[in-house]
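Consortium newsletter contribution from the modelling node. Members have asked for a concrete example of what our holo predictions look like. Here is one, prepared for the iron/sulfur cluster complex that several groups have been discussing at recent meetings.
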Amino acid sequence: MLEAPIVEIFSSIQGEGLLVGRRQIFVRFAGCNLDCNYCDTEDSKSVKNGELKSVDYVVDRINNLKTEDLHSISFTGGEPLLYADFIREVIDRIDTPSFLETNGTFPNEIKKLDNLDYVSLDIKLPEHFDGDYNNKIFDREIESVNILLENSIKVYCKIVLFPESSLDYIEGLALRMSNEINDKDLVSVVIQPVSPISRWKNSKDLLFKFSQAIGKYMDVLTIPQLHKFLEIE
Ligand code: SF4
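And here is the predicted structure:
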């Protein structure tokens, strides 16, 4: 019987990305292969913080939390792709659209999830890590995007930007994305200014510059974290 470490399952409003404002049920998995310095789900980074649950348990909880305004089920973490087989089975047993929030570094696992509806895929930056940045991360992210496109799954890329992020680097990244994503017209880039928004107090003009730099090559939107304003989970 398949089991996965779950931190929590709850109903809320999506606060990030292209599905912002949508009512979702969140299934939060424990464990992550990365260690981003801006991570706001610290409690989900370690597998130890999850409780092993079965597919039956997760499906029952989802069914009990359903509301009339429900849009989709968000599989989040931590890194949910550590449990791709488990997620695949849950999706097969629910009748609500599914949404995956991933760091995109497991292309071989994302392949297993051709039953997904929506994906938010992070593009990580060197400044997201206190240690060294592994250049292979970007290659894996793009490989994952291309697999999703091949499977006709709606995917957008999210980049958490810091006021200290390099404009040149971001422009170069957008150029690489436009060259390496197989159908770049199907993929938007969501700039998510790092929270708290007070970090941007003296750098608001930079938000326009980042948007313009990415907009030279890719469709781009800037969306801050709504749930932080609403003070909800
Ligand atoms: S990939 Fe996501 S969950 Fe993992 S450390 Fe980074 S921000 Fe946190």
